[in-house]
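=== RUN LOG ===
request id: a7f3
mode: sequence -> structure
chains: 1
length: 368
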Amino acid sequence: MVQFQKAERRRSKMRLALAGPAGSGKTYSSILIAFGLLMDKANNGNGKIAMIDTERGSGELYADLGDYDVCSITSPFEPEKYTDAIRSAEELGYGVIIIDSLSHAWSGEGGLLDLQGHLADRTGNSWAAWRKVTPKHNQLVEAMLQSNCHVIATMRSKMDYAQTTENGKAVVKKLGMNPIQRDGMEYEFTLFLDLDLDHMAAASKDRTTMFDGKIFKPSMDTGKTLIGWLNEAKALPEPTPQEKSDQPDTKQKKPIRLVDSGSDGNGARILFAKIDSYGLNKDSYRAYCYRKYNIESLKKLTSEQREEQIKILNSLKNHERLEEFKRLLSEIPPACSANAAQSGAQEKAASNQAPAREPVKHAEAGFF
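=== RESULT ===
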């Protein structure tokens, strides 16, 4: 027999969307709201903000507002890149994830519309193409909804118009701003705010009921108001001993910045985390990078080189490319791998004495 119980609002994480045209202040507003959300002392994690930036570094223009970390996504804007970044932020213990912007996953190069178009051109069946694209969209939505972090997503929007007839004359009317995302995406969020060019916000969907009918400028106070509303809900029940044992222990983990500074070695940690996931040899990978970029330490990688490596490693999800990369690493001379295993001054001295070698050619795989 079906059982019913008294309805209770349980404590959850904020799912907030900000949509607006260029210049409406989406990025700026999202950062301020994120800081407001972290004003609450009960936040889990290290109380820091992770921004997933697709806007060519625009997210870092507001670093003067406070401390937050950035992970850049470049084209192709595949939904899997967003999902991987969200999960990495969760594992690293961030409190708030800002996705700036989510529109690229839909309409950007390599996004869902682009993918659907290529599949439709190849098969000649547009509806069949959507059957392959929709699951990717759903996986991204689930990653946002199931995240143990607060999630703030920005979306570009465009003005919609419609032609109507008034007094026998054709009249073009503004219908409002429409976010550049799949239809219905606004229903996935707790609060959906539309921003205008005066940086003023109005709620087009509000499950909190606190912003309905209001016109306001988003600020840290907006975040404080939201965290207050979230904390009014009943706390989730304590996990059972078995559930606690199944959860990863993150208390002793030292927070790692998503942004690669080039001097603290965090770029290498991210690369090695990906290498481990494929079961590849770290020393061989070091040797490969040293030969490819003519460097003596992974800390010497430039941001462009690290980005190139992350792109290459992400491509190894394809089995053929993974096997090709394994063959590449296996062809690196043993002496070079031995030098890669050394550290500090020994590593540097060995690399200075080693004769120059021609790199193994794997241009077809894009590894050299």
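=== NOTES ===
The beta strands are 15-20, 49-53, 69-72, 96-100, 150-166, 169-179, 191-195, 201-206, 215-216.
The chain has two domains: 15-164+172-231, 266-365.
=== END ===
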